[in-house]
Amino acid sequence: MPLGSFFFSTLSRIPKSVNLNTFLTMEERTMRSSNPTLQDNTFRSERYYSIDEQMTVSGVVNKTGILLSCVLLTAGWTWIKFYQTGDVQVVYPWMMLGAIGGLVLALVTAFKKEWAPVTSVGYALLEGLFIGGISSIFEKQFPGIVIQATALTFGTLFSMLAAYRSGFIQATDNFKLGIVAATGGIALVYVATMLLSMFGINVPYIYGSGPFGILFSLFVVVIAALNFILDFDFIEKGARQGAPKYMEWYGAFALMVTLIWLYVEFLRLLSKLRDR
């Protein structure tokens, strides 16, 4: 899973007067299914609990709703903050706090899953600070883009869930390997462009609004969406294997990481399409 929101290319479209390279993304891809959070052995040691103490799919759904509410709460706060002033510099410190704090808690949650009932809530609140700021800035530049990105994100989530439940898309070993490899490849591209940018070397084709940039964003959106299948599969396995109750928070956290990643990628894609 990714460790951030791949904020680098997203933030490249924010006014140049604001140096947002510090938001560079490792957070979301660390939290993606290609990472330690939702690997096959994640639930292996989490067995032998009574029925009442075991993880359930419905429990994950409920926890996901709580985390989503936390994201919306703080996102709304930074959104209002920006529109009250219209100044990026006002929300910049809060976006910085959200990006860095979210990264730290994402790492903690990934390796201390028993802390997920607390750290996942903190992660959601911090990510909301960043998402609210980024969304308000994009909305000012491209009116209506936030509603479009939100609709596409949740539409994709429910479509992937329907495809998974119906068996239309199955999480076979080859499928998992392909998605993990593609996710890792995307992460390497983002990390490479980050390192190059530190030496003043830019990669315009990926982040531009030309055909190549749009195709790249489409590819990333597809891979992000397919990561939902891996999430659903691992969560279902956890419930079936009788993982402890706190793993519901862990599973909800993983879903939120994918959801936020996909939303940010949709923002980037739509901004490229509207900037042509």
Averaged pLDDT, please? 83
Tell me the strand percentage band.
Answer: under 5%
Separate helix tally: 10
Class inferred from helices and paired strands: mainly alpha
State the total count of DSSP E strands: 0
Measured distance between first and last alpha carbons: 31 Å
The biggest beta sheet reads: none
Q: Number of domains in the coordinates?
A: 1
Shape: globular
Low-confidence stretches: 1-37
**Helix residue percentage:** over 70%
Q: What is Rg?
A: 18 Å
Order of helices and strands: HHHHHHHHHH
Pfam families: BaxI_1
InterPro entries: BaxI_1-like
Organism: Parachlamydia acanthamoebae
Protein name: Bax inhibitor-1/YccA family protein
Structural key phrases:
276 residues, membrane, disordered N terminus, Bax inhibitor-1/YccA family protein, transmembrane helix, BaxI_1-like, mainly alpha
Would you mind describing this structure in some detail?
This protein is mainly alpha-helical and 276 residues long. It has one domain (7-274). The protein contains 10 helices and no strands. The longest helix is centred in the last third of the chain and has 30 residues, at 211-240. The protein is globular and about 55 Å long. Pfam families: BaxI_1. The chain crosses the membrane at residues 60-80, 92-111, 118-138, 144-165, 177-199, 205-229, 249-270. Keywords: Membrane, Transmembrane, Transmembrane helix. InterPro entries: BaxI_1-like.
